[in-house]
Amino acid sequence: QVQLVESGGGLVRPGGSLTLSCAASGRTSTNYNMAWFRQAPGKEREFVAVISRSGSTQSYADSVKGRFTISRHNDENTVYLQMNSLKPEDTAVYYCAANPSSVSRRSISYSYWGQGTQVTVSS
Question: What integer pLDDT is reported at residue 83 of this predicted model?
Answer without folding.
Answer: 98
